[in-house]
Amino acid sequence: MIPGVMMPGVDPPLPNRPVVGILHPGAMGAALGSALKARAGTVIWAAAGRSHATAKRAELADLVAVPDVTELARRSHLIVSICPPHAAGAVAEEVAAALAGRPDPPLYVDANAVAPATVHGVGALLGAQRVVDGAVIGPPAWEPGRTVLWLSGEAAPAVADLFAGSPFTARVLGPDLGSASALKACYALQTKALPTVWAALAEAADAYGVRDALHDQLARDGVDLTAHLNALRARAGSKAWRWAGEMDEAAATLSAVGVPDGFSRAAAEVYRRMADGSR
């Protein structure tokens, strides 16, 4: 589908060179904004209350600052929310307030690592037919081939078209909100939840005074406990607090369909301990 062509349930369609608003340009948001510049008329971000680091990332990505979310919402044909998982609902509420009374609301891509239920809540707030569920799997993309942007929702094909030829490989799962977020949550169980078992068993072994013996026993099995712990710390790093929120959302994803969610919640707690320095 080419932007500018009518989409069922979405009126008016995206123009050929839409104004895109990014909330907010962290590392991933800056990369998404940069990727959209080729197809967008302009890519903007809301400067109010943001840090110098955020402003610098936006500048390097050649994004255009506007004063605040109200101005961004007023000008945008498409808004992309990319924020910490726990903030996704508040960001959507801020946008909804800014859009009050606007007769032609923009499309809204929730590209956060949240549960399907969270996306459904955003859809109820902003209009399900105008919300696209997005899930980024991979690092901030500055070159093709490493990162996939999964999309679902009625307007997902139009959003995918905007990323054609960009460093992000956009793939459409279908018209149902929540599908992209469910995929992201399930994928995150093996990339972020499973590795935390090393931190949990090491902490328990420390508490019982058997850490050295455990290390030796694992080594006999060809397992390097220290290497696993170092890899976990290196990957999580300063993102541990954010991953805790993602694991909370993953737990909610599992619980909603009757799947045991305890290990996801345990992973969230491990990341919280890492973030506050207790591990």
What is the topological layout?
Blueprint: E1 19-23, H1 27-36, E2 42-46, H2 52-60, E3 64-66, H3 69-75, E4 78-81, H4 88-99, E5 107-110, H5 116-126, E6 131-137, E7 147-152, H6 156-162, E8 168-174, H7 179-193, H8 196-208, H9 211-220, H10 225-236, H11 240-255, H12 262-276
Parallel strand pairs: 1-2, 1-4, 2-3, 4-5, 5-6, 7-8
Antiparallel strand pairs: 6-7
Helix pairs in contact: 3-4, 4-5, 7-11, 8-10, 8-12, 11-12
Q: Could you spell the SSE succession in H and E letters?
A: EHEHEHEHEHEEHEHHHHHH
Q: Provide the helix percentage.
A: 40-55%
Please name the fourth-level CATH homologous superfamily of the largest domain. NAD(P)-binding Rossmann-like Domain
| Strands, total number | 8
Runs with pLDDT <50, length 5+? 1-10
Pairing-aware structural class of the strands and helices?
Answer: alpha/beta
Quaternary structure type: single chain
Termini, distance in Å? 49 Å
Strand content: 5-15%
Description of the molecule:
It is a single chain. The protein has 279 residues and is of the alpha/beta class. The chain folds into two domains: 19-184, 3-Layer(aba) Sandwich (Rossmann fold); 194-276, no CATH class. The protein is 49% helix and 15% strand. The protein has helices at residues 27-36, 52-60, 69-75, 88-99, 116-126, 156-162, 179-193, 196-208, 211-220, 225-236, 240-255, 262-276; strands at 19-23, 42-46, 64-66, 78-81, 107-110, 131-137, 147-152, 168-174. An eight-stranded mixed beta sheet has the order 3-2-1-4-5-6-7-8, sandwiched between helices. α6 (156-162) links the parallel β7 and β8 (168-174). α3 crosses α4 (88-99). It is elongated and about 65 Å long. It starts with 18 loop residues before the first strand and ends with a helix. Mean pLDDT is 93; it is low at 1-10. It comes from Pseudonocardia hierapolitana. It holds the Pfam family DUF1932. Residues 205-273 form the Phosphogluconate dehydrogenase NAD-binding putative C-terminal domain. Residues 16-103 form the Putative oxidoreductase/dehydrogenase Rossmann-like domain. This is Rossmann-like domain-containing protein.
